[in-house]
């Protein structure tokens, strides 16, 4: 329970007796008890509402399987990387052929090299880039 041992709870109780005093301690202990009961009732109410909304499927859920403390990132990655059936290996082929001289890229490049910019000429605009 939150790492609280009996010794720690006893120490907290002794400190509370000294800080609160014997006349106020019963009042605060009763408030703590009421708060614990309210929290328990709220949790049970939420559980009951969930059971009502989900119907019979609620009882079929394996809550331990959904516990985030059971997730081990190393195991998840290992399972994702290791497959039972090896997939067909895909290799990429790279073509070392000369570029097509009629490609639009080379045509634009030649046009830019040949075009002289004059102060009265409009700025170059690439319609495919926008």
From TrEMBL:
Topology versus the membrane: Single-pass membrane protein
Domain of life per record: Bacteria
Residue ranges of coiled coil: none
Record key words, sorted: Membrane, Protein transport, Translocation, Transmembrane, Transmembrane helix, Transport
Primary subcellular site in the record, as a coarse category: membrane
Residue ranges of the region described as Disordered: 88-130
Signal peptide: none
Statement: the UniProt record of this protein carries the keyword Zinc: no
InterPro entries per record: TatA/B/E
Presence of the UniProt keyword Glycoprotein in the record: no
Short name of any one Pfam family annotated for the protein: TatA_B_E
Subcellular location(s) of the protein: Membrane
Record's protein name: Sec-independent protein translocase protein TatB
Species, as recorded: Cryobacterium psychrotolerans
Native organism taxonomy: Bacteria, Bacillati, Actinomycetota, Actinomycetes, Micrococcales
């Amino acid at each position: 329970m939150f790492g609280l041992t009996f010794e720690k709870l006893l120490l907290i109780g002794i400190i509370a007796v000294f800080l609160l005093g014997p006349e106020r301690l019963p009042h605060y202990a009763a408030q703590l008890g009421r708060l614990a009961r309210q929290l328990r009732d709220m949790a049970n109410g939420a559980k009951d509402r969930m059971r009502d909304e989900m119907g019979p499927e609620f009882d079929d859920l394996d809550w331990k399987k959904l516990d985030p403390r059971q997730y081990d990132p190393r195991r998840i990655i290992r399972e994702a990387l290791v497959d039972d059936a090896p997939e067909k290996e895909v290799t990429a082929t790279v073509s070392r052929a000369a570029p097509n001289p009629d490609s639009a890229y080379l045509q634009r490049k030649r046009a830019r090299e040949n075009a002289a910019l004059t102060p009265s000429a409009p700025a170059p605009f690439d319609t495919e880039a926008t």
